[in-house]
Amino acid sequence: MRFKSILLLLSAASIAILPSCHKKDDDTETDPYLDGTVSFSFPSFVKVGEQLTVTPKGAVNPTGDVGYYWYSTWNSSRDTVKTESGPGDGSWTMTVPLETGVYTLTVGAFAANYSSISSYKKFTVVDPSIEGSLKGAGYQTDSSLLDQRDNGVYYLTTAGDKVWMQNNLYYSGSGVSYENSVAMDPIVGRFYTWNEAVSACPEGWRLPTDKEFAAMTGASGETLSDVAGSLMADATFNGQKLWTFWPEVKITNSAKFSAIPIGYAIDQEGYMKFMGSSQYATFWTSDNSEDIALYRYLYVANNDIYLGYGDKESFRASVRCVKDAKNGE
User: Fold this and answer.
1) For residue range 208-222, what is the model confidence (pLDDT) as tens digits?
2) Please, what are the domains in the chain?
């Protein structure tokens, strides 16, 4: 499956090295660059207004120490946090902008008689509140559940004799955040292995069986035909439409399932690979056999819902919890 992601495009979490040259007085030579590669860790997505501390690493002065400065696209002034001979490690505490969108943060390392080196990262600022970054999901805010374990909020809908969560589970006790960015948890949920998913739901809730998933759509069979649009939310993320599709897929969200195309993840020996964003929505079922389990997935270009088989330990999908309506909410 080809990875084509509106969300990843918004994050644009790239790193570039931007060396700056300092010419000597005779205009024929330049100072040598500092050794190493200056860099810093920063999430692809961050929450509006939160305060974060960033720390540079990797720059080396062969004859002494280095100084550091920071520069951001939302603040036109350069902030020198450490001089070459000054104390500290160059860390900088910043406040994330209050407006959603894509921003750039740059760090530079410098020292006397050396050309400075720098790098930057782009990141996306998100608003996790209802109708914040995610608009048009169709959540029924008058019916909700507060997960007492970590204060997660889930909106609920009833289909037949079952109560379903409308938004993806984001229980912090297991699973991984989209693009390893915790700020995205309330917006798109977390990805879980099947082994994690079977015990991730709040008390009284559980993974749905494949039969229950099919019953919610009113269809049956290995492929649930012509019903995907009834589960899709006609939503946008930071102003960008999430489901972009061929004309035969008509979004109605009539089942109030509010599916969004956040894709899936694969754990490859400790390296998390996020795939399929803007194309797929994947959901575990409780059905399983030996090392594999069944999941249902929606694809952007087709109105059918397909059946997939994933490894219980390495494939990660979204989770929707369900319970019997007769038990109350």
Assistant:
1) 999 999 999 999 999
2) 6-126 (2.20.130.20), 134-327 (no CATH)
